[in-house]
Amino acid sequence: MNTALRITAFTAGLAAAFGLALGVGHATGSDPAPEPTAAHAGHNATSPAGEHAGHGDGGSVAAEHLPGGLQISERGYTLSVDNPFVTAGSPTDLRFRILGADGKPVTAYQQQHEKELHLIVAPRDLSTFQHLHPTLAADGTWSAPTAVPAAGEYRVFADFTPAGASEGLTLGADLHAAGDLRPAPLPETGRTVSVDGYTVTLGGDLTPGRSNHLTLNVNKDGSPVTDLQPYLGAYGHLVALRAGDLAYLHVHPDTTTPGPEIGFTTTAPSGGSYRLFLDFQHQDTVHTAAFTVTTDGSPAPTEEPAGDHQH
Fold this sequence. Notes:
By secondary structure, this protein is mostly beta strands. Helix content is 0%, strand content 40%.
């Protein structure tokens, strides 16, 4: 899992992610500090125009690309969910495949942040979040046991890099949960949230088209947490989903110290509201802190090169 948005080198390693049924890899406080990693297109880094950025390329790519997760098919790959209809509250084995341009399931992937594929499940109202790590069968079928907590429309995001590909991508598909639907508004904005006895404080702001630095400080019982454990190769994962269309971004932090502060460099692709989901691990347990962040639709002013003023 270095919060669409652009978070360069966002959580390490958004989302975050950043929750129900989290796939927890074993990590201990004695592990070596993770190296900062640049976001790849699957753990999407997005430029101000909302394009995918290749792994470590700084986010400069063609402007025609959409933010991650908005499409079920892209660059010849298609996300195929075996059964997109589930029942809220009931355990289910979520099964899906990534189909190549030839229509056959992809069976070989590059490992990114200790996993070959990251699976995110979130409802349209962004009230909950699941960061899962499914298992791959020899025939190319992925499966992940899960249960969605409430009825409604969900989005499933598959974040991966096929073997031999120069960059990753994120595909999205709808998941429909039957039950007693009770729509809820987006949670209110706030700088501090409490989760599992931890207090996490968000610092920094988002400006469309401008790189910003966000910080997340983790405290417990009034004291800073300075012994965070690496989770999937980093001290935090941040996933950002844009309210309205659930455009997706999963990036990693630019810090390599075990807390209490985790830093991220981010660029919002547009004005609007975003939900940021931060995954962090402490005392062998993964926790998820969620924030609502709103930015206006005004892009950052472009500075004119010196000497270009007209008189």
